[in-house]
Design a protein that fits this description.
418 residues, mainly beta, Cathepsin D, subunit A, domain 1, Pdz3 Domain, 3 domains, six-stranded mixed barrel
Length: 418
């Protein structure tokens, strides 16, 4: 991928569920992709009937990734043209098309997501990720380093199969530290994933709870969530991050790189301004205003999905008079009440963590949210609802759901599990 005629390109992005979403134009069709530094390949996994995408030079292959399932069938397509922004262009690009109905990321994001892109986009540039302002700044690597980068911490990147790694000091228990190689993974919304390694004594600390971590190319990824004492790289120390511990089955493919022992995701990266310089094999980090915020997790145990749209009848009041005087008796105002119909989002429960507060309260998978804290669910966006499931609160979270045509009311006690 090359940059045409300019030294720098700025691309706004959406941060959805703590993932970076950018528009890509592939063979003149614009699609939404997650920027995923953990992806060595460009992968399309969601196309609808309305997406008229032409792919060149195709053949069948198999792909394998994190998850509990078998390798999945994919189509390799070569010699495609990819454009990002106005001036970033890639020709003769290879990409993979995956057909898997179970890999439904769009419904969890509340926005159609067509795929992931990583190494092929990043490899030739210096890219700054500004999480606070939701902006990517792409610069040619031969450009002079900005003076402001002198205020950043500089970490060396190591690469294996086109994926970036850094060495970290990991302290799971007090007094038990080790140097581990961790993948820098912007395609991971969590803070930290750690691979259990009994030989090294890296096991899940207590307390913990079992959790669904996400969908990989090879199926669901399961693990345990717990707090560790600290994570340190260079002179940056993060105290008590929330970590997901993956079992040996889920990490079998990832451990083909034997030195790897986990991933650093956007839960940590979003606390920094991040500059990735693949050509120089360096990463620059500077703390942003999010750094002091406490690490958090899904206390309610609810995984939401977008269930479509519904028509909502809204009252609309307008004045029937264009004039007004202080003496209202001399100039009465007529109000006209009519209605408008608007399409609003419908959110439902895709998963409930076993023994979570939501599970113990009685909520069920496929329940449709009707009201949350006495406010119609359609008046929230998905991010706002998810934030409610993560936040600490002294009072109960009140949720009314529709189930098989009936309304049910629940109060969820948001206990602290870690």
């Amino acid at each position: 991928m090359i940059m045409n005629g300019v030294e720098q390109e700025k691309i706004p992005f959406e941060l959805i569920n703590n993932l970076i979403v950018i528009p890509l134009t592939i063979n003149k069709t614009t699609l939404n992709f997650i920027l995923d530094t953990g992806a060595s390949k460009t992968i399309i996994f969601s196309l609808s009937e309305s997406d008229s995408l032409s792919l060149n030079n195709t053949k069948k292959v198999e792909l394998k990734g994190l998850g509990l399932g078998e390798p999945i069938e994919a189509i390799l397509s070569e010699n495609n043209t990819i454009q990002i922004g106005k001036n970033l262009l890639g020709i003769q690009q290879s990409l993979f098309l995956v057909f898997d109905e179970e890999l439904d990321i769009s419904s969890r994001m509340g926005k159609t997501i067509h795929g992931i892109i990583g190494f092929e986009f990043i490899k030739n540039f210096r890219i700054k990720i500004d999480f606070n302002n939701k902006l990517l700044t792409i610069t040619k690597p031969e450009s002079t380093l900005p003076k402001r980068l002198k205020k950043f911490n500089v970490l060396p990147l190591n690469f294996y199969q086109n994926k970036p790694y850094i060495d970290c000091e990991l302290t799971v228990y007090e007094g038990k530290s080790s140097i581990e190689k961790m993948l820098i993974d912007t395609g991971n919304s969590d803070a930290l994933w750690i691979f259990e390694d009994y030989k090294k004594g890296i096991v899940t600390p207590v307390p913990f709870f079992d959790d669904f971590l996400g969908e990989g190319l090879s199926g669901s990824i399961e693990g345990k969530r717990a707090k560790i004492k600290k994570l340190k790289f260079f002179n940056i120390e993060l105290k008590e991050p929330i970590a997901a511990f993956l079992d040996t089955t889920s990490t079998l493919f990832a451990k083909l790189y034997e030195e790897r022992n986990g991933s650093i995701g956007n839960g940590i990266l979003s606390k920094f301004s991040v500059v990735l310089d693949y050509p120089a094999e360096k990463m620059y980090l500077k703390k942003n205003r999010s750094f002091p915020k406490e690490f958090n997790y899904n206390r309610a145990g609810i995984e939401l999905a977008y269930f479509g749209k519904t028509l909502v009848k809204k009252e609309k009041i307008s004045s029937g008079s264009d004039s007004y005087s202080k003496n209202q008796n001399s100039n009465p105002i007529d109000f006209i009440i009519n209605y408008e119909y608007l399409f609003k989002p419908v959110y439902g429960i895709a998963r409930i963590r076993k023994n979570s507060p939501a599970d113990l309260a009685g909520l069920k998978v496929n329940d449709v949210l009707y009201k949350v804290n006495n406010k119609p669910a359609y008046e929230f966006n998905m991010e706002e609802l998810v934030d409610l499931f993560y936040e600490k609160r002294d009072d109960d979270l009140k949720i009314q759901v529709e189930r098989k045509g009936m309304l049910y009311y629940y109060e969820i006690k948001m206990v602290d599990l870690l």
